[in-house]
Amino acid sequence: MLEINNLRASIQEESILKGLDLSIPAGEVHAIMGPNGAGKSTLGHVLAGREGYEASEGSITLDGRDLSAMDTAERAAAGLFLGFQYPVEIPGVSNIQFLRAAYNAQRKARGEDELDAMAFLKHVRQFLDTVGMGKDMLHRGLNEGFSGGEKKRNEILQMLVLQPRMIVLDETDSGLDIDALKTVAGGINAMRSPERAILLITHYQRLLDYVKPDRVHVLAQGRIVRSGGPELAQELEAKGYAGIENAA
Amino acid sequence: MATAAELENMLKRREYSAGFVTDIESETVPPGLSEDVIRAISAKKGEPEWLLEFRLKAYRRWLKMESPSWAHLDYPPIDYQAISYYSTPKSMADGPKSLDEVDPKLLETYNKLGIPLEEQKMLAGVAMDVVFDSVSVATTFKEKLAEAGVIFCPISEAVQEYPELVRKYLGTVVPFGDNFFASLNTAVFTDGSFVYVPKGVTCPMELSTYFRINERNTGQFERTLIICEEGASVSYLEGCTAPQRDENQLHAAVVELVALDDAKIKYSTVQNWYPGDEDGKGGIYNFVTKRGDCRGKRSHISWTQVETGSAITWKYPSCLLRGDDSRGEFYSVALTNGRQQADTGTKMMHLGKNTRSTIVSKGISAGRSDQSYRGLVRMTEGATGARNYTQCDSLLIGDQCGAHTFPYTEVRTPSGQLEHEATTSRIGEEQLYYLMSRGLSEEDAVSMIVNGFCRDVFKELPMEFAVEAGKLLQVSLEGAVG
Predict the structure, then answer these.
(1) What is the interface pTM, i.e. ipTM, of the complex?
(2) In the beta sheet, which residues pair with residue B235?
(3) Based on the structure, what is the number of domains in chain A?
(4) Domain containing A125 — which CATH number?
(5) Which B-chain residues 414-473 have CB contacts (< 8 A) with chain A?
(6) Short-list B257, B206, B261, CA closest to B234
(7) Which residues constitute the domain of residue A6?
(8) Distance separating alpha carbons of residues B252 and B185, to the nearest angstrom
(9) Mutate which of B429, B433, B459 to test chain A, going by most A C-beta atoms within 10 A?
């Protein structure tokens, strides 16, 4: 589903991604782990098409479509979702108003009918229990005054509502207590399907106790230096990144 | 994702959809201002002697006054002899007796503006007065209002029909010598709306006036007077548009509100006068004096304004809090773009005991526009227990615009309390990126952030108009992208 070949990217003239290859088939969950500064978050932003994060070389395709030709909104409509490590606050815009605008913008871009307010509310409500959010959260400003955990759960709610095909979650587990971590994991597991692929970007192995990955990759110095099954995460937890980097 | 420069570009010029001219024959007094012109206007309107004297007194005072120079505005001196002070569509010369007699071209104009005058098509529950250049062309729902005892009519008609009411209140809130533009207005005002809500009556519907400047080289000097007797209440909305013309046109209005004991007046404005082109050519000069007098105990006056138009805005809707326990409020959204300049804010004058005021000002500056908030909160010695809350937020789009805040406070009572909060922010790349990553286009993302920023003010608008105001901002930001 997602194919990344020889991806190179520089941020403010510093080379961050140095020939990254990654292939994630539909139906699989992959995890990318790596030390701080390895380029994990950069990869997320390059995939989402953030300004200043353009690939200088290589290719990224989603379902065979070249992502580099699309802007951020078009990538979202094509089915790509990036869960943010630090979700942004938009004061005065209610969560539900934002969700509906985003949902309908994507449907419109795909030539589908937009949902009216009532139908959309019904669509959203089915996911509230999964993320442990009350209806009141829908009417608060988007991430406005949300705690760290609430922001992360709100990212998961957005993912559930938008039903993307390719999900990239950037350190969604960071800063969560154990209950919130389980809730977030529950949301991610609910999205596992043969039509979908999920990429978890994480620093720790902890999330992977709850969301079992099919493949684990180690990103270090801008490249995938090792790939393996779930047992690789265990090994990293035991040995740390230093050993892996040296081995590479 | 937009860099500052791209955002700038995207907002460069929005389409002004109300910019058409109605081709209609009109009777316009030749440009120039003199006692003869004032006498001519007064005679045309068949005014009583006292009103003519009132006008002349203001004119003589005005001659000795100077145009104010303290505002943070930059514009060439206005030639008051080049302006025509009275213009009326010719077919209106004898005055229409009913809507059926109104020139179809005029009706078409208002239809184009989205203001259908045929009553059956009107927004349910909103009565409307329409002022075209210098005269009122139609007032709807008059009978229904009359049943409740509410008077809603052009002020020129009120002068004829209810002279004692007009004489009792006109000029008591904004005196004839108040300021340069108010004095000019007093000398030459032509029409505007008059509202009178008798004791204990809650006006059964929203009242609304639409102002339209059509004629070239014409100034619009409307005068609005709203009186709420004891325990009465009314919600009033004004909207404004003008054609797209290369030369600047002057608009100098005066609005006076009087609230007696326990009365409540809510006054909302959606102002979309033509702002001029990208290089600052043309557009309306909007110099307006608006003041509400909380004359009675526990009276309450609330100003809400959404200002997106005009080349120059000079406007400070104010409250005189004279009655004990009276309340004044000012909620404002001002959006400037292109070369627009706005110096706007409010004055809250606390005179009575335990008076309260709230100021919420949201300024959005884009393009190469310049915007200032100027607010005065004064608490006199007698205003024991007075309280004020001021919140003043600026949002900048691009890096060539300006936002300034000039808060003034004068507190002479030890028990007075003041709270002031101010923020300045810029639409951030991170916010846009976040919204776009969920599928929103760049222009929708900008519009969503701006609307969220304005929410505290929009929620104060009457329901129908809150939607309209949101759309107006969206259009203002949208048109420029494509």
Answers:
(1) 0.96
(2) B266
(3) 1
(4) 3.40.50.300
(5) 428-431, 433-442, 444, 448-449, 451-456
(6) B206
(7) 2-247
(8) 6
(9) B433
